[in-house]
């Protein structure tokens, strides 16, 4: 009897979610029936500045910004566009000119103010974008259970509220849990607000608040100084978080007591798309230490190797970030269903207790900005 | 005499005129090489490879004479001269039980190896590479600490001979005293070990071989793996998929397969118009 009640609780949000999706689908296909199939549908918030031969656009489909840029170029270069300004959460990143090579111009504070004046933010310029995001948390090497893993599938979306400000939300469908004793209940995916800020051409911030990944809730602030045409960059990150999780019927949380305080300096080898990054400070659970990363960007993929040494132990391993095929599954002017453009995973060689651990927000500023570095795009274009 | 000189010049011309070659043949631990031995070749920058190899029981490296072994691997040419390779070695079937009472297999031996080509191939000189296994393994058996040289010679328009000689170090660093469950610091517990102290071991001492490849599509291999003579064949079925098989010491069969793709390639619809040769 008890089991039956539980099953119905399990299925209810799933059914509701499906109804919602089908409803949205019917509504949006009805609306877009007259629209021709168009490559420009891959882009959002497109605005053309004919006087300056510029185009502003946002694309959330491809992990590699160059793919979006070249796809758009095919459509608009014949119309005299020379400068491409990709937006991230509605905020311009930098200007890119395509010619025999690729040139990057950073945007000054004045450029940004002018853009904001001329293009008031409009959330309707964005699709209802649903992303299928797998999540795989694992530990290896324990003999009783050689792979302790937790696998989930997340259906995520982003709600654009104002310039730079979005709400990340979604539904989490658990698949396997052999890691901890959390039940396999369908539950809200990490839900949090994120404000992306470009202070001028070279200073950026990311502010987050809400329920993050890895069972931590609270606030997270990241700052980064990064000139997208230069080799050196540095940044800081701080956070105050606490543990939370969704049991089958309700919400459990503890007080916010985990202080994260990290600083890093990174050097880029432009010809090789390699970033060397030294970071350190306090990780979760008052574990203090340093970490060194070697990061290589390869097209749509990023691969890294690292070592870390903290009070709780020493570790090393590798990580990667890859897009998950097939990418776009279905899209109209208003709605899109696709697989994630970024699945990130890290393998640690040693299994210890809380070594240099951290939680995840939707993006790390350094990882986001190096995707827009002039040398990374240029090396692929030339 | 003059004819020989002319042939030699033609060969040199062909060798130097080669555009970036693709040496798709992968050894037992996932490195460019022959069957059991690695070579100094690396694939094109950005090449990602995933594969499997089978080592028969009498030549199994860790579970010698008790189990045959499966080796799963991935590798990535991170920089044009640097290949990083991660492999996992598992026994096939039930492994002997260890004293602690659990099956001795666990998840298997995980190993990270680096191959750095510090001298690329020239008209007269071979390429030379140093291969090192990350020293933080606890009980790895595929440890490859070796110095290796490879020289390719064009024998005809389509036949390429790749000669490899190398030296495998019997010495390696382990963290032998560390138990899996207490593995909380990869910077402690280092011990110098001699592979030859074990009844069976991998790649210690001089090794060498030749890989005769036909149009970069199929080939024949002969090697001395520091202990035995092995003979093998390989073929590339579709563009990126290689199948290989060999006879170890004239006794038992080994086989493997691997799939490679280049991560630096843009999607076809875009690369046609924006290729470097534009």
From TrEMBL, chain A:
This is Exopolysaccharide biosynthesis protein YbjH. It comes from Spirosoma fluviale. The lineage of its organism: Bacteria, Pseudomonadati, Bacteroidota, Cytophagia, Cytophagales.
From TrEMBL, chain B:
It comes from the Bacteria. Pfam families: YjbH. InterPro entries: YbjH (IPR010344). This is Exopolysaccharide biosynthesis protein YbjH. It comes from Spirosoma fluviale. The lineage of its organism: Bacteria, Pseudomonadati, Bacteroidota, Cytophagia, Cytophagales.
